[in-house]
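Pasting as-is:
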Amino acid sequence: MLKEIARISLHVMNSNDEEVMKACLEKIWIMSIENVSESEASKKMNDKQKDKIKADDDRGAYLIKKYGTYKGHSKFKLALDFFQMSNDRFFEIYKFNFVPRGELYEVARSYITGRQLSKGLIGGASISADILSRSVMKIDVSSSIANQIRNSVNNSFRLGG
């Protein structure tokens, strides 16, 4: 464990990114206090992530069963993590790469968007009554709302892998 802590400490010293430094120091703290390995500390940090969407409802439970497992992990949960963390972080936790394909990709992405909207993590598209009442402005409202939602979703997820 000391070698792992030393390696993480070196990473902190070489980083100029405050978020990376905080994450590394939190990981060292978890490793020291709970006497766990680096990968176990990463998993604990991942589970504590505040705004992370988890499959903790009936639909999530159904989708977990529907898509089965990959290397002992739920494919659906892996897909959710794929959309919510960097490739490096994902590999650090799971020790393998995973890219959801086809239906799983679309379902996981849609699940996250729906949960974020229901939790208020994505602001809904809104057009003021004042703008709608102006006869000078001729806009296609449905197209405008669709574009706002599309931009909001695209900014919330990293697309691809």
